Automatic annotation (TrEMBL):
Lineage, broadest ranks: Bacteria, Pseudomonadati, Campylobacterota, Epsilonproteobacteria, Campylobacterales
Keyword Transport: yes
Keyword list, A-Z: Cell outer membrane, Ion transport, Membrane, Porin, Signal, Transmembrane, Transmembrane beta strand, Transport
Superkingdom field: Bacteria
Compartmental location: Cell outer membrane
Single annotated GO MF: calcium ion binding
Signal sequence segment: 1-19
The organism of origin for this protein: Poseidonibacter parvus
Biological processes, Gene Ontology terms: cell adhesion; monoatomic ion transport
Membrane-topology descriptor: Multi-pass membrane protein
Name of the protein in its database record: OmpA-like domain-containing protein
The OmpA-like domain, residue ranges: 259-374
Cellular component aspect of the GO annotation: cell outer membrane; pore complex
Amino acid sequence: MKKILLTSALCASIMFAQSAPSSNYSYEVTPFAAGILSDSQSNLANDNYANAGISLAKNLKESFLDQVELAIMRSDSLNYKGTTNGNTNINRVFLNAVKKLPLTEKLAAYGLVGAGYQDVTQEIKDHDDSALVNYGVGLRYDLPYYGVAVKGDVRHLFGFNDKSNDVMYTLGLAMPLGKKYSENIAAKVPVIEEPVAVVPVVDGDDDNDGVLNSKDLCPDSLPGAVVNENGCEIDDDNDGIVNRLDKCPNTSPDVQVNEDGCVATINLNIKFDTMSDKIKSRYNSKLQEFANLLNENTNLKATIEAHTDSRGSESYNQRLSEKRAASTVRSLEKLNILPSRLQSIGYGETQPIATNDTAEGRAENRRVTGLINQ
């Protein structure tokens, strides 16, 4: 009885689930095998017995329901408890409404509910002919052959006369009958059309770029320009500047460029006092401008290069240049530039841009520059 109540609750909860449209066939015939778990009121010696049956379903179109099904089934020859010659067969007929719920392209769940009648060939004690109701849920899997599907379900059967509560489980093979036609078949009257004179179209290439006018999306290409199949000049790095005008032909994706196809660079050019790696406050605006450029173009990276004059030993100047580069990187990180986008290099005194023989020249050589990597 616990199994019956649990099955009933599950059936009632999902039997009215939403469904996909019905199949492409008008009817569906399903031979099936079934087993029935009978309660003790039937007085049968075997409370789990086999049945065989067949159902015919009508597929509905533009309806809440997907099918109306008529099913008949017959049981094995069954013995009664406590008798030596008492046996019976049970014939049942059902009329059910079916609602499907697609789960995948080929797999669907379905719920059914309906009424029927059972005929007991030999009635003993309370096992009588009776009106029935049944409801349940199942699964169907459409095979890739001619609309055939495998179906299986579990149902609760209730008999009014003998107050029986049975659980039925079925397995069947659904086969289609009568394919639907979505279009109305109407007689077609042949229409005789008069021939129309066809004037040949001459397709030219007005801009002489090798692409015919009918396919040329850029019909005014300059003489000698290299174009693609649409007649438009090629822009290999997709920065909006064609190769012919692009002075930076390998710009990183999604980077904003100027009319030359290059990123607008900023001359960082920070100067340092002798033997110092401290950045003076007057360079704050330069650092902010440089950081803004990197923040606006997140695909860009930068290389910070630092230099010294020639006073002091080479090893000291090398360390000093590295400190100046690192100091500049820290300032940019404070302006929300990720460390992974910054590279620092110290060149010491090896790359002067002015003479080290004068104070002015040495001041020019004590510098940091920022290079944008496109």
